[in-house]
Amino acid sequence: MQIKTHNPTEWLTHFGLNHAVEVKGGERTLYLSGQTSSDKNGDPLHPGDLVAQFQQAWDELVKALHSAEMTPANLVRLNIYTLDVPAFMEAAEQIVPIYAESGAQLSATLLGVRELYHPDILIEIEGTAVA
């Protein structure tokens, strides 16, 4: 499998992201459900802490990848849903290294939403991986 990134402008690369990710020769595609900062019963963890919630959601996403015998390097797409886009942007310096240092070559979308499944959940991430 070959992954090639496309960046007609560089501004997204400051966030560890790409404008587009091209995959050639992939045999399997994994669509990951939204992951949140929740315990095994779905109860929220880290109320009020956007960075800790992103880290926990990322850890859950990585566990799902591993269950399919994949790693973050297989991720090509990440959708980020948050209740507070300005707070996410303020915390970007802390959030970006969480995924950027994992080897993932991502395209991504950041979406501000009115609510998630529980009022204490501030962020949810879903992804697409190819192997």
State the low-pLDDT regions, or none. Answer: none
Q: Distance between termini?
A: 7 Å
Helix/strand order: EEEEHEHHEE
According to DSSP, the number of beta strands is 7
Gyration radius from CA atoms, angstroms: 14 Å
Portion of residues within helices: 25-40%
Report the major sheet.
5 strands, mixed
Oligomer state equals single chain
Report the portion of residues in β strands.
25-35%
Indicate the overall shape: globular
Mean pLDDT value: 94
Q: Helical stretch count? A: 3
| Major β-sheet strand ordering | 2-6-5-7-4
Structural class, by secondary structure, is: alpha/beta
Describe this entry's structure for a reader.
The protein is an alpha/beta fold. It has helices spanning 50-67, 85-90, 92-100, and strands at residues 2-6, 17-18, 20-24, 29-35, 75-82, 106-112, 123-130. The strands form two sheets. Strands 2-6-5-7-4 form a five-stranded mixed β-sheet. A two-stranded antiparallel sheet has the order 1-3. Helix 1 (50-67) packs parallel to helix 3 (92-100). The longest helix has 18 residues, at 50-67. The radius of gyration is 14 Å and the shape is globular. 27% of the residues are buried.
Pick out its properties:
five-stranded mixed β-sheet; alpha/beta; 131 residues; two-stranded antiparallel ribbon; 7 strands
Topology of this protein?
Layout: E1 2-6, E2 17-18, E3 20-24, E4 29-35, H1 50-67, E5 75-82, H2 85-90, H3 92-100, E6 106-112, E7 123-130
In short:
With 131 residues, the chain is of the alpha/beta class.
